[in-house]
Amino acid sequence: MISEIDVTKEVEDYRKYLMLANFKKSTVSMYCRTLEKFLQKSQAEFPEEKLNQDHAQSYLLHRLELGKAWSSINVDYSSLRKYFQERRDYSWSMRKMPRPRGEKILPSILSREEVQRLIEHAPTYKHQVFLTFLYSSGCRLSEATHVRLIDIDGARNQIHIHRGKGAKDRKILVPSKLIELLRVYYQYYKPEVYLFNGRHKGKAYSAGAAQWSIRRARSLAGIKRKCNIHALRNCYATHHLELGTDLVFLQQQLGHKNLKTTAKYIRLCIERYQNVQHPLDRIEINYRPDSST
Fold first, then answer.
1. Of 30, 80, 231, 284, which has the fewest Cβ atoms less than 10 A away?
2. 138 and 231 together in one domain
3. Do the beta carbons of residue 232 and residue 143 sit within 8 Å?
């Protein structure tokens, strides 16, 4: 019976399982939050039934009706599937309930001039350096906030990224201009342990503070186009491709497992196609705007 499940204990056991499986803290938190909401809803609606995949389907449809984004529902799906198959040893039919199809929504991309304005209007020097770091490294937010001082190899212009997506390490190549900027930044702020400290030295910069910095910079710069921290990663990849950077190099820099993931940025390029000749440009058509019909 679903009513007999101790939700608190079930979620805590799931948390321990995910931690032992070496999932990132953010993923553990999201998966456990999904399980807790799912079990609570199932207990309220189907207390006398035995837990099965129909209840998971009901929960996902409920989330869809609430207007949740595909990315959120996909996380819910992954969490419940893992819980059913690996924690409860219940059946889970992909044919009965396939994974939600992804939405192919093109992200908003800032021009190089807009990126410059964004950085110049950041509230403080630290915010300017942080936004520059994101744009010039292509790091994900969680990767950037956890870069340690010992991870920076100024002689080789490299930065060691620990436990990126998929718990994988990688080394990224950054411009010497960024290394020079970081040296000046270090003299001003004297950060400890992490390159970007939070409210207290020796502690990592928080994701919330980082997101606020770009919102504030966007407002001060008068940029109407929507953009968040991840937009700088998108700009990094797109602007590189427009300047002719090799796609495989970008794949390694961004930490993508599949080259197709990197190739999606080609669709966002503008300068890459400015020299394309359109057939309409080669014909002269006599239009009659004063025609009565």
1. 284
2. yes
3. no
